[in-house]
Design goal:
The structure holds two protein chains of two kinds. Chain A is 34% helix and 19% strand. By secondary structure, chain A is of the alpha/beta class. Chain A has one domain (3-98, 158-288): Glutaconate Coenzyme A-transferase, CATH 3.40.1080. In chain A, α3 packs across α4 and α9 (244-254) packs across α10 (257-269). The longest helix of chain B is centred in the last third of the chain and has 16 residues, at 248-263. Classes of the chains: A alpha/beta, B alpha/beta.
Chain lengths: 303, 276
Amino acid sequence: MSMKEAINKLVHNDGFVFFGGFGNGMTFSAAHEIIRQKRRNLKVTKCGGGIMFDQLIGAGVTNHIVTSHCWNGTGPQPAYNLRRSMEKGIPQKIIYNEQSLFMINMSFFAGYMGIPFVPIRSVVGTGIYNHPKEVGLKAARVECPFTGEKICVVPAINPDVGIIQVQRADIEGNAQLWGLVGDTKYGINACKKIIVATEEIVDKKVIMESPERTIVGAHKVDAVVHEPWGAHPSSMQGHYYTDLEYRFNYAAETKEIEDWEAWLEKWVTGVDNRQEYLKVLGEEKINFLKAKSIIQGAVDYGY
Amino acid sequence: MGTDDKEYCREYTGFEMMLVSACRQINNDDIVFNAFHWPFLAVHMAKLLHCPDLFFVLEVGLFQDELAKPIKMPYSISDPVLVPNSLFVGDSIDALSILQRGEISIALLSTSMVDKYGNCNTTVVGPYDQPIYRLPGGGGATEIAGLAKKLVWLIDDHTTRRLPEKLDFITDPGYLEGYDSRIKAGYPPDTGPDVIVSPFCIMRFDRVTKEAYLDALHPKITVKQVKENTGWDLKVADNIKQIPPPTLKEIEVCRQTMRDAIDQYFVLKPEWTTYL
């Protein structure tokens, strides 16, 4: 399936969408296709929104972000669309459902486990715990039934649809991700529908050679998209490195609204798909970012 | 450190002194939670200076005790260069659980604003609903501040705006309202901020009130200067300590680390990089 078909089929207005990737393997290609298809009023979640959420905010796709952090990590520099939205209501005022990194990870974990909440020893007394009531209860304190100790609990998050970018998957959707995973495994398995975008489509036998790398199984996957370089400008271990220059320049190129509109036209709305995006990126940059192969860690599975 | 290391640098910036002073807080047998962005520099420096065996944990779910070769500071906690040079790679929950189990002996965090009880704000300046300046949010800093045993705050500018008496929003918990309020909120009793390191000085926290006080001065800085640039009526230790300047070895490693950071697109203010 193409990314265009997958987004058209599975991501709908007013839906709740999870995006995978922590620095590595971020689902930029999917986010850009959602912008092109002009989805509106999406609630979106990932542990750190970064410049991907900044783009979804600026393009008017989302009015509600559920995340622990949203900034441009290169510099670090501000996420100007986030700032425009929250400070000036441009293009619209969004709800920032303030999370901490542990809260959101454990909420995904509760969703992954199929249970309503999990306890954590964090966030009580902070503004994250006390303040934004308009987004509903995000954490509470309960008494432990075994020890009587008062402990903070966070609710399960179960998004309508989740999207991940992985190194390899078979055509049925058995997907393998290695390197920096962050929140991706628990987040994606908490979702009701799943899109797997992959650098490579491989035979099922390749998956079975190292089954511990599988993060989601075919029984849960609704669409498999062969999407090389789908995580640019983030990295994909074994495939390509982070495009620091692009990410650094993004700040100056989106600081003013006119510049942001030009950026969006150049990289997102002015191209039809990831292949065309890569033409704009250019061969020289692609060659510069390509990973040098490091093959290691063959083990004996004998019995 | 051997006696050869005691030759001191004469000219350095306040930012360099802050990094060196923060780096000195770390011991070789610490288990450190390493966080973006200034702590990342300080921990890298410690590893190259007095902590060759240092074990560190990154919030993305990675544990490491050796630097990648050739040695260069990674651009961030999610640099893929870290992966084939690590001891363990898992999920964020793995990293945050090591923190929650109480196994982290020291953590360093940089902050944009810290108050007299060591609470920090990286969420919003001004009213929450009508922000003057929206900031990123806490990320993992909220639980690092909540659950690490010895927390070192790094603040790169010592002004009344950056060190106010009270914050608009508490993103990361210090001692909350002071006294035993942190314990009452359920945080483990052996956790909490240990020091605030600024370009001017090191502040520590009173055992009872949990209010930050001036404990030690960086060279050429006066008590008056610190008090005038702090947003509350800063108390001063009876026996105020003098912190030695960076040694030649420390400043060499510090400057190389700063050059690595600039190569990796970190934004360093011109006044911090005068001697690079």
